[in-house]
Amino acid sequence: MYAHPDDLHRARSVGANAPAEFAAWVAFQKAVDREDGAVPRRYRELISVAVALVTQCSYCLDVHTAAARRHGVTPEELAEAAFVTASVRAGGTLAHALLADRLYEQHSHSSAPAHG
């Protein structure tokens, strides 16, 4: 549960318990947050918000929504990105439903129905 935004400050203390991994993560984060990439920073933040919506990470949503605003993302862009994200996520559900349908059919050929 995302009850305490101040928990974000705990990252350094958690990282101190895994210094090599934390240093690698910080370096990776710096590379992703750079301003000179082919993908402009405002789009990187929109992508980050979309991923945070899918993963339901409140901390990421907090950090990247703030960064998106700082980098010029409008409320309309944020709203549209949310609906694009919802649509793609729904598509993933349908894709897995297609797999479930095929697996169900395959199981009907390979085993007798269970009796309760």
UniProtKB/TrEMBL annotation:
<dbReference type="InterPro" id="IPR003779">
    <property type="entry name" value="CMD-like"/>
</dbReference>
<dbReference type="InterPro" id="IPR004675">
    <property type="entry name" value="AhpD_core"/>
</dbReference>
<dbReference type="Pfam" id="PF02627">
    <property type="entry name" value="CMD"/>
</dbReference>
<protein>
    <submittedName>
        <fullName>Carboxymuconolactone decarboxylase family protein</fullName>
    </submittedName>
</protein>
<dbReference type="InterPro" id="IPR029032">
    <property type="entry name" value="AhpD-like"/>
</dbReference>
<feature type="domain" description="Carboxymuconolactone decarboxylase-like">
    <location>
        <begin position="19"/>
        <end position="100"/>
    </location>
</feature>
